Amino acid sequence: MVTNVAVACQGGGSHTAFTAGALRELLPPLHASDDHRLVGLSGTSGGALSALAAWYGLQREGPDHAGDLLRQAWLDLSADSAVDWWANEVTVASARLANGGAAVPEVSPYYTPVALWGQRRIREVLDELVSFDELAALAEDDGVPELFVGTVDVNGGEFETFQADAVTPDVMLASMAVPELFHAVRMNGHAHWDGLFSQNPPIHELMTVPPARKPDELWVLQINPQQREEVPTSMTDIADRRNELSGNLSLNQELRFVEQVNRWLEAGYLPEDRFAHTEIHRIGLGRSFGLSSKLDRSPRFVRQLLDLGERRASEFLDGHEDLDAEP
């Protein structure tokens, strides 16, 4: 019996390079396995970038190509020029001061050209990474995993997800549009922001698919630590933990519903021909880097996160029955 697997990629600024590293390690053995089948990928913000790169690379040339695209995407977004490096250092330092309680001037992204410059750069990276005109045709092939990208409708106040055949550069820009940093992206007459407010990452859509494609296992690539042993007391630590808790809020709500469906199935309240038990696995960073570092795009830090993702995924595979890091 084949085990259906869906992978959900949480967003969280630069920390989301972790999801790219984890996917680089997870995809080859999952693709080569006779006992496991990838049926879905979802993501929000940077998690959406990683999910898209993985999905597109798999459909085009397989897991090795997907791994190349995942690494390329995050290194292309890193601050690799002198001017960009300087801007990155100033941004991270300002965020660190603000999180510590210092009075730091705040400027709306609508009043600075930096915001539009940043979004133009993201669009350039996306255009080099993916041929968006091909997505609809690729999504029509039999056996292709689902892809869901999360955004939030600013005007309507509701989350909105987009499947592979509807993903465009604007959809990706919207999913990555952190309100404090970028302009909202207008689609279908409404402004859209980063989906971190609503689904981080989309889980519900991965579960509401035809029975044959429902995931038996859900692998969550989690950016924000679920637990902390110490109680934060400094303003910086308090800001860090508040951000982690708010970032996990929508994720935990959706996972609790999946767990509730599992309990209803076990109790016989739901028909087994329409619902399936879904085992949840979380693959997390395993450490806290601090809120300000979510803005850090230095190549050194991005590579550190990519490598960390690969290590955490390898540890997960080593403990997973029938899968290992070297198929």
UniProtKB/TrEMBL annotation:
One of its GO terms (biological process) is lipid metabolic process. Residues 8-206 form the PNPLA domain. Keywords: Lipid metabolism. Pfam families: Patatin (PF01734). The keyword Lipid metabolism applies. InterPro entries: Acyl_Trfase/lysoPLipase, PNPLA_dom. This is Patatin-like phospholipase family protein. It comes from Halomarina salina. The lineage of its organism: Archaea, Methanobacteriati, Methanobacteriota, Stenosarchaea group, Halobacteria.
